[in-house]
Amino acid sequence: MNLPIKYLKKFYWRDYLVITLGLVLYAIGLTGFLIPNQIVMGGLGGVSLMIRYSTGIPLWLSFMVINSILLVFAWFILGKSFVFNTLYGSIALTIILNIAERYITEALISADPLMSSIIGAICCGIGLGLVLSMNSSTGGTDIIVAIITKYRYISMGRGLMYVDVFIVLSSYFLFQSLEKIIFGFVIISVLYYAVDMVISGQRQSVQFFIFSSKYDIIASHINSELQRGCSVVEGIGWYSQSPQKILIVLARRNESTSIFRLVQRIDSNAFISQTNVVGVYGQGFEEMKKGNG
Q1: What is the CATH number that goes with domain 205-277?
Q2: pTM higher than 0.70 for the full model?
């Protein structure tokens, strides 16, 4: 189906502003709090930190090289849309880290190392939360886990947890210190808690009822742009006593903004109802297991 050009996805500069703000906070957390205390976190940030501690290679250079290699694999395995969603975050983070490492050369807070590191984890977590809330990514281990989940059933969250634990445990070979490992686990726990707080439970599902005379165009764009299924049911508007098509959509909570924007640009007079859903099971959501319900 050929969709009208006027309904093609628009560039939202506010999204990129939020992503950039998140990346700045992430870079400050790394360079101003974690590096001075030589703490290792999870993800590509943790790998780059260990490379910096052992060789002196700047964070931004490690990020750029490793992310470039991973993005090449992602292009062929996960598809170009995944790469495009990750590209801005990866490039912008490399530039921001380069600037941060030049100008932040000392600890921003000269306090207890653990407390300073926790503040850094909060900064990193809030930053990542802002990036993820805009459906973007900084790449890194996200790409590795996304490739694994494509071929083996494992949740993205659990996969990232396994990778982060492995990275933090690997820091023992660098520091020969159990204290550093404990600090690392505290840091990733605080970081992901901050991420969850920012995105307000991004895995929570929502249900939309959309009433619009342009239901067919909206449904086509939800399928093509958001890769979400939807259903059309027959109804009657009791006030007008006229037939009415009702579009039903189930999606992740962090996709709500995209759905609202999509509907608004196609039909500004549409009527939309959104409700939280306790659980959604099936393709694109959670796996149906014994004992659900």
Answers
A1: 3.30.70.120
A2: no
